[in-house]
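QUALITY CONTROL LOG
STEP: pairwise intake check
CHECKER ROLE: data steward
CRITERIA: each record must contain a sequence immediately followed by its structure tokens, with no blank fields

ENTRY 1 OF 2
RESULT FIELD BELOW
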Amino acid sequence: MAYDRTHLAQDDIATASATIRNNLNKTANMVIVDLGIPPGFDLRSEDLQDYQDKSSGLRSGQLSKFSLTATQAILYFDSFAPGDTVTVKFRAGQISHPRADI
């Protein structure tokens, strides 16, 4: 997971990129990815919804659903073909502190 910045002022929003790759020599079915959300941040679920909508026709890397908790985003993919890589981008905003480092 990579962030576009490491220092945020109040009301700033960071963009994160999570890259998922199938390193197997066969298709990986029913892939679950658990992404940590830094403490004090709120993930913008509309970004995951947008990716889910855009990936609906894909044979590999289709996001079938996702769920959010205060500390994690769990992504459920139908399958990944051998060697396939997907990058999911989403925004996270600060919820309570005037300055944060991630």
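ENTRY 2 OF 2
RESULT FIELD BELOW
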Amino acid sequence: MMVIYKITYPNGKIYVGQDRTDSINYFGSASSNLIAKDFTREQRRGFTIRKELLWESETATRAEVTAKEIEFILALSSNNPAIGYNLWPKPRDHHPPAATRHAAHRGG
């Protein structure tokens, strides 16, 4: 089973990731240094996070799982530093997606 999950930290910020093994103990690869900056030493002594499964599939390809992960990252804006800890994909500053830019150059 492959899943897309959302981790919610005590400060309300989120991280969206994928797990192709559906491990109950996997909490993603968010940057520990980035997260640590948001919490005092005292806050780190008692720390609860929540993991929610947003989507799951037994048949999706790796490419489909990655596309779904990106879809959730963008929909939830977890790549916006004020909202979440996803560093990828980089937030777009009003630039059209690459496919749109390429179509425009081809006259499509």
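INTAKE CHECK: passed for both entries
DESCRIPTIVE NOTE, ENTRY 2: The domain at 2-105 is CATH 3.40.1440 (GIY-YIG endonuclease).
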